Each structure stands twice: as structure tokens, then as C-alpha cells.
Amino acid sequence: MRVDIVTLFPEFFSVPLCTGVVGRAVQQGRARIGCVNPRDFTTDRHRTVDDYPYGGGPGMVLKAPPLVEAVESLVGPGNPGQVPVVLLSPQGERFTQTMAREMAALPRLVIVCGRYKGIDERVRELVVTREISVGDYVLSGGEPAALAVLDAVLRLLPGVLGDEESAETDSFGIDGTSGLDCGYYTRPAAYRGLQVPEVLLSGHHARIEAWRRAEAAERTRTRRPELAAPEPPTASQQTAGNPPPPPDSDPATWRKAG
């Protein structure tokens, strides 16, 4: 998988790209990651990438030409190969495990990191194919969010994790829509008056699996109730002609329509 990051601060990624799961994916040759700086596409001696917004107001806005041309240096004018170009923005869709799995199946991906007050809206219209947000908060720039996305995606590439099953049993599950994972314990069996649940010491795999499922369901219900499986509708609620639920998004949604 090839990932290119459009960022004003390529040095931000120098250590993380050599560390942990992301570093392992790069070292194994399963991922190639590069950075492109929009400043390299400026035309003035100060390499200016931001300006005051039309209409006034606080803050500075990233200019369209450097960002658009930086992206086009990677995908070509008009993006003929329909390479997914993702803008990290608090205005985007919430990033989920389902999205991470879709992205891990893509051969190429461009990630655009915003800065300052925001970006010129024409960048979205000209080169961005999808916007995603890592949460309902504002960062100083898209670089920390890009690292979070990279870690979530690259750990799903085949062979990156030592145990493939580990990713499938994490919180949110293999389909990205399941609830939270259960709690885990390791040695010693007793620590500061707290004991490992007896069932986990029983060696009875069926009982252990049942306990873990129940623990995960209870943890989801109490900590993230919006992730809990909904109650099935009653017969009176099931009326003819109701539209089916929307399908999960698919990798095609990462590309710009038309």
C-alpha cells in the first residue's frame, strides 16, 4: 500500500514512521509512505501558503494553489486514476474501524493535513474525494490525526501484526460495527487484593469464551450504549414497505464521483 501525506511539517512524521506498528509495516515493505510539502509549490520568496480570508474574520486560511498543486503532483491533474484523496477535518465523517478496513484494502491513498483556520474551499471541490474526522474536537493541524489514521489502517495489512486474530477480536470487531472488547488479565493471578476471575483460570475454553462475550456486551452497554445491539422490532413495528437499512460504505466511496 502506498500512502502520501500532504503536510506543511514533514518532519512531524520522521520518528513515528520508524516506530511501532507503522514502522514495522514500512520495514516489511507492506507500506510505502511519503510526504509532500505544499511550500514546494509556492511562487514567492517567502514560500507563503496562507492568507487572510475574504470577507474578513479571525485566523488565516491555507491557500488553494499550493495545496491543489501538491495533490496533483501525486495523482495528476484531474486525478485520472481516481486515487482516494482524504482531507482530515473536524467537518468530516467520523473515522471508524469500518473505514480503516476499507482504507487498508486500497492500493493508494493521499492524506491532506489542514492547518490554521482551515483551507480554501476550492481545495475540497478540486481534489478532495472524502473528508474524515478523528473526533469532535479541534487539533492545531491534521498531522496527529494522520498518524492515528495510519496506525489504525496499517495494523490491518496482512502480516503486520504478529497475530492476525488479534485485530479481529479488538473492540469494534471484524466488521467494524461490533461493540467493545472484554477486559483481560495476566499474571500474577492475585495482585493487591484483586483476583483474576475464576473462570479464566478454569481451562474450560467454552466457558471462557462465553464469559468474554458476556463481559464485552456488558462493557458496551454501560460504557458505549450507542454501540450496543438494538432490540429486535416487535411485530407491530414491522410494517410493509419500510426501506431497508443503508448498506455499509464500500471502497468506491473513497473516490470522487465522476
Structure description:
With 258 residues, the chain is of the alpha/beta class. It folds into 2 domains: 161 residues, SPOUT methyltransferase, trefoil knot domain (Alpha/beta knot, 3-Layer(aba) Sandwich), CATH 3.40.1280; 51 residues, Trp Operon Repressor, Chain A. 27% of the residues lie in helices and 16% in strands. It is built from 7 helices and 10 strands. The strands form 3 sheets. The protein has a 5-stranded parallel β-sheet, with helices on both faces. The longest helix is centred in the C-terminal third of the chain and has 19 residues. The protein is elongated, with a radius of gyration of 22 Å. The model has no long low-confidence stretch (mean pLDDT 89).
Short summary of the structure?
This protein is of the alpha/beta class. It contains 7 helices and 10 strands. The protein folds into 2 domains: 2-162, SPOUT methyltransferase, trefoil knot domain (Alpha/beta knot, 3-Layer(aba) Sandwich); 179-229, Trp Operon Repressor, Chain A (Orthogonal Bundle), CATH 1.10.1270.
How far do the termini sit from each other? 24 Å
What do the pLDDT scores average to?
Answer: 89
Taking all Cα atoms into account, the compactness measure Rg is 22 Å
Quaternary structure of the protein: single chain
CATH superfamily of the largest domain: SPOUT methyltransferase, trefoil knot domain
Q: Biggest sheet, strands in spatial order? A: 2-1-6-5-8
Reported by name, the CATH topology of the largest domain is Alpha/beta knot
Q: Which descriptor suits the 3D outline?
A: elongated
Text of the CATH class of the largest domain: Alpha Beta
Provide a count of the helices.
7
The strand count comes to 10
The CATH architecture of the largest domain would be: 3-Layer(aba) Sandwich
Label the structural class. alpha/beta
Strand content: 15-25%
User: Can you write the helix and strand succession as a string?
Assistant: EHEEEHEHEEHEHHEEH
Detail the poorly predicted runs. none
| Number of discrete domains | 2
Proportion of helical residues: 25-40%
Largest beta-sheet characterization:
5 strands, parallel
